[in-house]
Amino acid sequence: MTRTDASRPGGPRHFRRVHLADALLVTTIVLEATTLGLVGLAPADRVAAVALIGLLDGSLFFATWLAFAVVGWLIIRRQPENLIGWMCLYFAFGVSLIAVVTGIATYLLAADSGSLAGQLAGWVAHSATLGVVALPVFVFLRFPTGRPVGRRFALFERLSIALVASLVPVVALAPIPLLGFPTTPNPLAVRDLPIEPAVSYVTIVVLLLLLVAAASLVQRYRRGSPLERRQVAILGAAAALVVLAFGSSPWTSPEILSVGRLSAPTQIVTAVAMTAIPIAIGIAIARYRLFEIDRIVNRTLVYATVSAVLAGIYVFAVLVLQAPLGEVLPDDARTLATAGSTLLVAALFRPVRARAQRTIDRRFDRERYEARRTIEAFAGDVRDEVELEAILRDFLAATARTVHPASAACWIRGRQA
Question: 309 is in which domain, residue-wise?
């Protein structure tokens, strides 16, 4: 039996891979459920005193990583050779291992905050947590084909493995509280290790990895086929939701700056944003209804830009108009300034939107921008042209520039008697 025969759908290797995916999915579910059970068995007030995780956190965490596992499993069931599916499933399995160790530490420390076993379990989870950074990095580097976009990014992928590995001892030995357990000191900390340089190193490395991985997606979008561009666009839209959710957390949940805990609404919003990533991966890999994603991303960029510009104009206009109106009509200054600013924003909406649409099309969707310009130019020529041969010639030229067919011809049906 040849290698191709063994790995074909229905072959022995195909079945082994599918069974392995089944086992990983079931194990992930069991580990996550065990984590929830451990947190739920401990008294809620004691859990809140020693850990940042609770039943709500654990349930949202469970849902997010279960989505990664299920999407990876579904991809593997259809395409057992697909590396992106295996990455989603293996990462979900690895995170569930960290989660169950966190659950054990939570249960033990809730029973006895000085438990050495609980501290060691928390230290294991603390040391391994930064491995989760590898998920977006490696997925972005290899999505959607399973291979880096070029030699430079293939080299960076190997470098990123070394950088992530270098973070583990820094975090494991830093004299800081355990991640997720703010009242529990690191039991294996090196007291002489300088904290600020260590934290700065971890922050710089994490940001570098994420920025280069995002640059890989941009490069793939520029070089890829129309299908790959749509796949990258839908993942990029989901990643933008995650950045927006986490970036707004200091304002939507100010307690994160003091106690490191997100409010319940912010947790839910963040979990929904995180779950959008595996859903986007599943849709992109399945190639289902991708042809409208460019339009969705385009509209998202346009209206986000318009909202930001008009909000800035509104606030600026209110502040500018209040001063002169306050001297003439002090009691009605704020009302008139608000009304005037509202009218100004309403008048500017259409021109600002049109300007933003042209700018975004020119910057991010050059192909559509050029196609629209070609069609507009053709429409203008047709209005002034009277010769049929010239119209046909312009029509075929416009078709070639916008649709890029392998060949093009035009037949005109003769007038029937």
Answer: 300-364
